[in-house]
Structure formats: structure tokens, C-alpha cells
């Protein structure tokens, strides 16, 4: 076999090997992508479902449809069927694009004329934006930590506070001014939350929410049984990048 023929055979083998490697790489990439982004069906809101609206009413109004999300985006408690919860009532507003979660519905209306206030406590209410209310995941019976962000720092204000009712959501206009003087106006939903607290806690919440001590914004941190929240010096410009 002459040299030219040997070179042709070697080139053919190398080409075949390269084609095989590319094929197996593409197959592996497709499999990895499929594992990560494999779509699953879930019920989602296509129109706003209002607090106090029953599942049956929302379904009849065409507000709930089956959609697809990646497995990694599927929320705990997300529903694929409404069977068995048709008469349950939305405990908070559910906005278009949100997955339908069992925990956002209950057998009783979210807001009634009679509040169940923990013994020895009083009820106070505050308005929070969607971001400050943990994107709508806070429901009656949940425990929250309350943080206050003022011009100087963000600190824990109160811990382990019980939410006893979630009221209506309204849209308000908020105007902010940047360093150049340019103003931006946003339409932000704000939801009314009622908390069961002691007198001292109520005084702190009302003072902070009224803009006392230089003004500030309140925000919830949703707690579970394993949450660890302790008072500290808070976060400020002076220590923002210190430690963890």
C-alpha cells in the first residue's frame, strides 16, 4: 500500500472518529438539557384571581389554565388539578403567571369582620408591597420576621410575629427621584396585613411604618420551624461586605 493510500485511510478514520465524538457529545448535551429543563404541567393563573374569590369562580371566569414549567421552576404545593378544592377561597390575590398553590386557598374567607386575636395581644395592620410581602407567599397563620430599612441601615425590628389576616390589595403610584433629579413613577400593588402583637410590638411597628426615626420601609421575612433569626447590628454601608 503506497503512502497516499495510507494517508487517505488515516484521514477517513480520523473523520469517522470526529463525527462519532460530536454525535455522542450532542446526545449527552441534549440529555443534560432534558434533565434540567424537562417541562412539567402545572396550573397557572392567566388573569388575576382576587382575594375572597372561590376556585370554582376563578375557573368559570377562565382565570386558570394548564401551563408548562421546567422541573426546576416547579413550586412546592403547585397543583395540576382543582379536584377537591373547588369551593375553597383565595386567601390572597394571585397574579397572572403565578402557579396555583394549595396554600393560597382556604375554606374560610381571608378577611372577615371577626378576627381571632392571640390571647393578650392586639391586632395592628400595615400595608406592604409585593416584594416586602415575600411575593405573596405570606398567609394567615404564618410567622414572620419584620425588618426595617432606614436611610442608615437595615435591621431586624421584630421576630416571630403571627399574621392573623390578609386583606385587600390595592395599586398605588410611587414616584422615586434618582441622583440626576430624574423621576420614575411605578404602579405597585400593596396588600394589607393584620398582625397579632403585644402593645410594645404594636408601638414599634406603627412608629416604624409611619416614617419615624428618619423614615423607612418595612418588609417581612417568612419563617419556618428551622429559620434562625437573631438581632444584630444590621446591614449598613459600613459593614455591607463584612463576613457573611
From TrEMBL:
Taxonomic path: Bacteria, Bacillati, Actinomycetota, Actinomycetes, Propionibacteriales
Pfam family, one: RcpC
Record organism: Nocardioides marmorisolisilvae
Domain of life: Bacteria
Location of the SAF domain: 40-106
Classification via CDD domains: SAF_CpaB_FlgA_like
InterPro entries: Pilus_assmbl_Flp-typ_CpaB, RcpC_dom, SAF
Protein name per the record: Flp pilus assembly protein CpaB
Amino acid at each position: 500500500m503506497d503512502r497516499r493510500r495510507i494517508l487517505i485511510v488515516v484521514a477517513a478514520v480520523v473523520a469517522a472518529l470526529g463525527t462519532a465524538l460530536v454525535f455522542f457529545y450532542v446526545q449527552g448535551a441534549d440529555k443534560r438539557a432534558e434533565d434540567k429543563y424537562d417541562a412539567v404541567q402545572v396550573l397557572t393563573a392567566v388573569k388575576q384571581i382576587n382575594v375572597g374569590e372561590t376556585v370554582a369562580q376563578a375557573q368559570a371566569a377562565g382565570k386558570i389554565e394548564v401551563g408548562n414549567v421546567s422541573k426546576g421552576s416547579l413550586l412546592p404545593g403547585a397543583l395540576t388539578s382543582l379536584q377537591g378544592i373547588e369551593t375553597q377561597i383565595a386567601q390572597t390575590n394571585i397574579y397572572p403567571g403565578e402557579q396555583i398553590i394549595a396554600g393560597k386557598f382556604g375554606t374560610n374567607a381571608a378577611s372577615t369582620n371577626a378576627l381571632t386575636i392571640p390571647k393578650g395581644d392586639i391586632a395592628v395592620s400595615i400595608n406592604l408591597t409585593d416584594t416586602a410581602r415575600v411575593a405573596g407567599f405570606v398567609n394567615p397563620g404564618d410567622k414572620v420576621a419584620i425588618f426595617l430599612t432606614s436611610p442608615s441601615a437595615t435591621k431586624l425590628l421584630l421576630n416571630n410575629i403571627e399574621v392573623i389576616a390578609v386583606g385587600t390589595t390595592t395599586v398605588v403610584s410611587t414616584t422615586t427621584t434618582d441622583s440626576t433629579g430624574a423621576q420614575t413613577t411605578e404602579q405597585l400593588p400593596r396588600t394589607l396585613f393584620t398582625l397579632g402583637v403585644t402593645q410594645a410590638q404594636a408601638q414599634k411597628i406603627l412608629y416604624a411604618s409611619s416614617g419615624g426615626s428618619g423614615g423607612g420601609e418595612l418588609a417581612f421575612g417568612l419563617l419556618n420551624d428551622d429559620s434562625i433569626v437573631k438581632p444584630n447590628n444590621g446591614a449598613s454601608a459600613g459593614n455591607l461586605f463584612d463576613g457573611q
